Amino acid sequence: MPPATLSKLSKIADVHSEFYNELKSTLNLTKVPGPLIVCPKSGLNDDLNGIEKKVFFTKDDRRVEVVQSLAKWKRQELGRLQANEGDGICVDMMAIRQDEEFDHLHSLTVDQWDWELSLGFEESRRSEETLKAIAEKIYACVRKTWMAMASSRHNPTENDLPEEVTFVTTRELEEKYPDETPKERERIVTKKHKAVFLIGIGDIHDGRAADYDDWTLNGDLICWHEGLQEAVELSSMGIRVNATALERQLKVRDETHKRELPFHKKILNNELPFTIGGGIGKSRLSMLVLNTYHIGEVQSSFWPEKIREECEQRGIFLL
Prior knowledge:
Number of domains: 1
Order of helices and strands: HEEEEHEEHEHHEEEHHEHH
CATH superfamily: Bira Bifunctional Protein, Domain 2
Number of helices: 9
CATH architecture: 2-Layer Sandwich
Strand content: 15-25%
């Protein structure tokens, strides 16, 4: 994308507003404020893969941390609000991930729509059928935004996103491509189908914290970026753990000490509603819809001067 002008920046805002309006009405979401910082003793911060260092500081002799996602906070909030089944919330989430490696898809800044829907207290709502139904609705919002913004696309492509998303499990990919890495399997299947929802993240495929998604009932929405010729993950989402899944996954991760944290106790005591939720990357979506080649073209963040210079030499201008 050429150097930023107000008209070019307005296209990014248009992508955001177009998609959010679709998402809000489709999933019955209410926008709510969310925290930027949390107390680690609450158990609410996201440990991601368990190795990323959190940004923190000390206030009144207490450590507070910048959130890495709001996955657990949203579920607790739906319980606090006594939300009815089918009602949901959405937060404009910003986070800092200091250990992220710089590349064209990753910066130190995370900006996403963090959403969560109440499934009530009926165990039967925790099903693959529910997961797929919500994933289809979210993909429909992505495609509507893609179509609505066609005239704004940089380097227009001949190929549109398919009308429907293809579902595949990580187990199926492992059996079909046993000699490939998980990321290469994603690339192969996404290049073929253009839009894929990959079910089963966190066990055999990729890292995922043990205490929010049920690894058997979660997935990633991945679309093919024509300009990059690459599979781009737009969203991670899942049905959240019940007491049984939490116990099982904490044991796998050797994190059973977390049972004593306030959030985890509420799940083990069945005090929180079952929910489904996830995050949808604002900048990743903008990259796909506008067909830009670097996340820094659609997101303002910190970039080393060397990276800025290398990008400008290739005609890529970072915000």
